[in-house]
């Protein structure tokens, strides 16, 4: 076993603090990765504070992991020592169900194995620990190649925020010339803008904060509208082919559905904690559709990384030492980050 430095929450009410864990020695199909950077996702806060229930403590968060291979198992064929690689939201799945066979492991019938706060399927049920640590051992089939042209620190959030927005844009058929609105301009929203713009869509950002106008346009949006101004919903009624809703705070889905054209589609990737009421008429009267999406599989995540490399897309980040992680959590809750914190894990060494 490999003793590894990390930061962990010992309970739902405890701040993150230094922690030591044991990583397994790489088996024949494993790679051992020296972690260089780890993005900070809002779901890290939910899990570390057990806001969704079922968290496994001690809990080492982090599922936006980028580093370099330090050792490859004897049967590994896809990676070698020194390769720049990434690990996203899951590290295993059943490998045999229809979803896994299609390369959509995120929808595994038996449940994907989360990168942290989960149990290893084939390793005696040992808890999984995430990327707020100096190294991790992962089966090569759940590891991504990071293209050379993407800065490694700015690549980290692509492993969650990037694929969470890329996958539904592809699945629901967003294409050049489509009019698309992105609701919310946070970690997910800013990636939605960049990716949709790279796909050729005409992007409008819808935000409660008028102060985000300049950022939205700088990120690639053509238009910006403040939803705190209620006339916005009248002015933009029937305007969009697609709406990508990235907001995890409670809000009125019905109001946004009225902004879709006939046959328009609204896609949910944000997850408010409380159920939201949904009226039938905004859907029925214009044959609109409401859908959702959960990250992406390994195949599609690699496709997304290659797309980002081709179109010069990367996350906008604020690089922090691990010692500032609790402060970063409080700032994230206040929306005080442009647009993703990334931990420099050299601070753990």
- The level of helicity is 10-25%
Number of domains: 2
Class inferred from helices and paired strands: alpha/beta
- Straight-line distance between termini: 18 Å
Account of the 3D structure:
The chain has 349 residues and is an alpha/beta fold. The protein has two domains: 2-160 and 296-348, Quinone Oxidoreductase, Chain A, domain 1 (Alpha-Beta Complex), CATH 3.90.180; 165-292, Rossmann fold (3-Layer(aba) Sandwich). It contains eleven helices and 17 strands. Strands 3, 4, 5, 8, 9, 16 and 17 form a seven-stranded mixed sheet that branches. It is globular, with a radius of gyration of 20 Å. 46% of the residues are buried.
How would the blueprint of this fold be written?
Elements: E1 2-8, E2 17-23, E3 30-39, H1 42-48, E4 65-72, E5 84-87, E6 90-92, H2 98-101, E7 113-114, E8 135-139, E9 144-145, H3 152-155, H4 161-171, E10 179-183, H5 187-198, E11 202-207, H6 213-219, E12 223-226, H7 232-235, E13 240-245, H8 253-257, E14 260-268, H9 281-284, E15 289-292, H10 298-311, E16 317-321, H11 325-333, E17 340-344
Parallel strand pairs: 10-11, 10-13, 11-12, 13-14, 14-15, 16-17
Antiparallel strand pairs: 1-2, 3-4, 3-8, 3-17, 4-5, 5-9, 6-7
Helix pairs in contact: 4-5, 4-10
Put the structure in a nutshell.
By secondary structure, the chain is of the alpha/beta class. The chain has helices at residues 42-48, 98-101, 152-155, 161-171, 187-198, 213-219, 232-235, 253-257, 281-284, 298-311, 325-333, and strands spanning 2-8, 17-23, 30-39, 65-72, 84-87, 90-92, 113-114, 135-139, 144-145, 179-183, 202-207, 223-226, 240-245, 260-268, 289-292, 317-321, 340-344.
């Amino acid at each position: 076993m490999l003793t590894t430095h990390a930061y962990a929450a010992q309970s739902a009410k405890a701040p993150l603090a230094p922690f030591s864990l044991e990583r397994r020695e790489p088996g024949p199909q494993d790679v051992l990765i020296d972690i260089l950077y780890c993005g900070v996702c809002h779901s890290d806060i939910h899990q570390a504070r057990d806001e969704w229930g079922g968290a496994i403590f001690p809990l080492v968060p982090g599922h936006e992991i980028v580093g370099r291979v330090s050792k490859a198992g004897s049967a590994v064929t896809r990676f070698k020592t020194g390769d720049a690689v990434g690990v996203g939201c899951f590290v295993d799945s059943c490998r045999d169900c229809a979803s896994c066979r299609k390369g959509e492991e995120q929808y595994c019938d038996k449940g994907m194995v989360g990168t942290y706060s989960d149990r290893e399927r084939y390793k005696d049920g040992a808890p999984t620990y995430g990327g707020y640590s100096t190294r991790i051992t992962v089966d090569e089939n759940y590891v991504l190649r990071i293209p050379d042209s993407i800065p490694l620190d700015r690549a980290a959030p692509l492993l969650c925020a990037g694929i969470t927005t890329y996958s539904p844009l592809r699945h629901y058929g967003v294409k050049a010339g489509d009019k698309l609105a992105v609701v919310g301009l946070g970690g997910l929203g800013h990636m939605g803008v960049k990716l949709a713009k790279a796909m050729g869509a005409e992007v409008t950002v819808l935000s409660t904060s008028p102060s985000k106008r300049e950022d939205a346009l700088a990120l690639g949006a053509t238009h910006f509208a403040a939803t705190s101004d209620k006339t916005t919903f009248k002015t933009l009624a029937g305007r969009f082919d697609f709406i990508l809703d990235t907001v995890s705070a409670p809000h009125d889905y019905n109001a946004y559905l009225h902004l879709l054209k006939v046959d328009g589609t609204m896609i949910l990737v944000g997850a408010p904690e409380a159920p939201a009421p949904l009226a039938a008429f905004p859907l029925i009267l214009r044959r609109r559709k409401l859908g959702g999406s959960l990250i992406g599989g390994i195949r599609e995540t690699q496709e997304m990384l290659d797309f980002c490399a081709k179109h010069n897309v990367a996350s906008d980040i604020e690089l922090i030492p691990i010692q500032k992680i609790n402060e970063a959590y409080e700032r994230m809750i206040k929306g005080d980050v442009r647009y993703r914190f990334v931990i420099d894990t050299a601070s753990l060494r």
